[in-house]
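Bumping my old thread because nobody answered last time. Still need a sequence for this structure:
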């Protein structure tokens, strides 16, 4: 049987990173105290450094830019489908009866 994957909220991750960036605690020590793998702490630190405002958006949520990209891709697919339908309709109605 596999172990259940633990989830950590944004506040927990931010505070964990603060332990090693602002309070000077060693990453290995902080990870041990928090019960997480040290590599996870380094990953959170990197994510927070790259995008402090939108890091850790939460389960099932996307960053605003990613959500916009998803919406635009969906819209593009809809427009392509409508175009293809119109092309087929034009081909059908433009045939001349013999």
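Sorry it took so long. Here it is:
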């Amino acid at each position: 049987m596999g172990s259940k994957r633990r989830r950590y909220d944004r506040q927990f991750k931010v505070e964990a990173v603060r332990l090693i960036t602002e309070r000077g605690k060693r990453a290995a020590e902080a990870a041990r105290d928090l019960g997480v793998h040290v590599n996870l702490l380094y990953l959170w630190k990197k994510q927070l450094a790259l995008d402090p405002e939108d890091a850790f958006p939460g389960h099932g949520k996307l960053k605003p830019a990613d959500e916009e990209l998803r919406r635009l891709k969906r819209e593009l697919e809809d427009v392509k489908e409508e175009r293809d339908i119109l092309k087929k309709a034009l081909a059908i109605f433009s045939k001349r009866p013999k």
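The mean pLDDT is 85. Let me know if any region looks off to you.
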